[in-house]
Each structure stands twice: as C-alpha cells, then as structure tokens.
Design a protein that fits this description.
The chain is an alpha+beta fold and about 240 residues long. It has 8 helices and 8 strands; from the N terminus they run H-E-E-H-E-H-H-H-E-E-H-E-E-E-H-H. It has helices spanning about 5-10, 45-50, 65-70, 80-90, 95-105, 135-145, 205-215, 225-235; strands at about 20-25, 35, 55-60, 115-120, 130-135, 160, 180-185, 200-205. The chain has 2 domains: about 5-70 and about 105-230, no CATH class; about 75-105, no CATH class.
Length: about 240
C-alpha cells in the first residue's frame, strides 16, 4: 500500500507534484499518456505535462534521450558517447576518466516493457521504482535530514551522483530495493525545463516509505523548532 506523504507536502509547502518512475507491464492505468516529442527529446521536456497530471510513456521503440539510462538501450556507440560527453560537452577532463564514470553507473534495465514517469498512482504502487520531490533549497535541506533519520553513519543514504537527469531517476541511485536517495536535477542539459529554484530529491520506494514514517513521528526534525523558525523567517511557508 502506498504511504501517505501529505504531512511532508503540507509542512514543507511543496507545490510541485511528486513524480514516480514506474516499470509496469501495462501503461493503460497511467493515462493520460504523452510520448517523447522527438527522437532525442529530453525526458524533462515533459515536466509541464507531469504537472498537468499526464505520464510520459517510454518503450524500446519510442524513448527519446532516456534510452541508455532508463531502458538499457545504447543509441550511440561507447566511443561516440565518450567523445560527445568529453569533447563536445566538456563534462570530464579526459576520455579515460569519462569511461570510468560510465562504468560506475550502468543503465537501468526494466523488468517490464513500459517505463512510465508522471504523477503517483496509488493503485500501481507495486510497479513504483522511485519517487522524486521537486523542491527548493529549504525543502531539500529538510528532506536530506529526514532521509537519515533511521540510518547510521556507516551507511549514508543520500548521495549527489554525477549522471544525466534521467539517470538520477534510477540508475545512479544504485540498489533500488534499499532505502536510498539522490540529490538530482544537477544535469545542466535538463535544467532548462525546470524553474531555476528547483532541485530534485529522488528516493527509492523503501526510502519513500521511511520518509513517511519520519513525518509521522512527532519527535522528528519535521516538527522541530529549527524548521518552525525557518518557516517564520520565510514569511510563513518554505
């Protein structure tokens, strides 16, 4: 059963809808659906559609730019990809270094034939793989703290990995069956599709459940005086 994030959303005044990444056998329950608008269309060009309640539908046949990271498909050879990222985009100092980064985060390989990205569907919770909060810096700070509420220092649950924006929705997180989260929307290529004050906080399903338990604990940091003072300083809401 999908946990209820209402306490988090209301306390932190999160205005953007939570966005789920689903790996499902049937896209019909996620309607209305939208498809990539061009062969290399950015996944985040659909952000406005998500906010309207629509879901981006990706398959091996129609996938846009998200193919390598969300479907395990390679639209370019490894050599072409390295040259593009280093020689054209300037993302790493050398080809060898970029090779190591690509090896460190293999793409997500879906279990079913449909990857769907859009608003949460409680009746499809079995197929949910990650949840993304689109937040400002104040909201992000509170979520990062909350993500560590049940963890020890030897197992930090939050990272900020180098990856494409769509890679940060799944592949860059690591084990999606563990309580993990990443600070995302740090890919320069996708920032044009978001308001400048937004970052992403993407959680696995276990971390999403953990955050909802944290929110329901009246002793947790979501209900402390530090947050109350910040809310007051911001004029009543974050």
């Amino acid at each position: 059963m999908q946990p209820d994030p209402t306490t988090i959303l209301e306390t932190l005044s999160i205005r953007e809808p939570l966005i789920g990444l689903y790996d499902a056998p049937d896209p019909a329950p996620f309607a209305p659906l939208v498809e990539p608008g061009a062969p290399r269309a950015c996944v985040f060009a659909s952000f406005g559609a998500w906010c309207e309640g629509k879901t981006l539908h990706l398959t091996k046949e129609l996938h846009g730019c998200g193919a390598p990271h969300l479907l395990g498909l390679q639209s370019r050879s490894r050599e072409e990809m390295v040259k593009f990222l280093v020689d054209k985009e300037g993302l790493r100092a050398s080809h060898a270094l970029m090779e190591r980064w690509l090896d460190s985060a293999p793409g997500y390989h879906p279990r079913h034939g449909h990857v769907l990205i859009g608003p949460l569907h409680a009746d499809q919770y079995d197929y949910l793989r990650s949840v993304t909060f689109y937040v400002n810096a104040d909201q992000l700070a509170v979520l990062v703290t909350g993500a560590s509420y049940f963890s020890g220092p030897a197992d930090p649950p939050v990272t900020a990995p180098f990856s494409s924006g769509c890679g940060q929705l799944a592949a860059a997180i690591g084990d999606l069956d563990q309580p993990r989260a990443v600070i995302g929307a740090t890919d320069q290529a996708m920032r044009q599709h978001l308001d400048p004050g937004l970052l992403a906080f993407t959680t696995t399903k276990p971390m999403f459940e953990s955050l909802c338990r944290w929110a329901d604990d009246p002793k947790s940091s979501l209900h402390n005086n530090f947050l109350k003072r910040t809310i007051k300083a911001r004029g009543g809401s974050l």
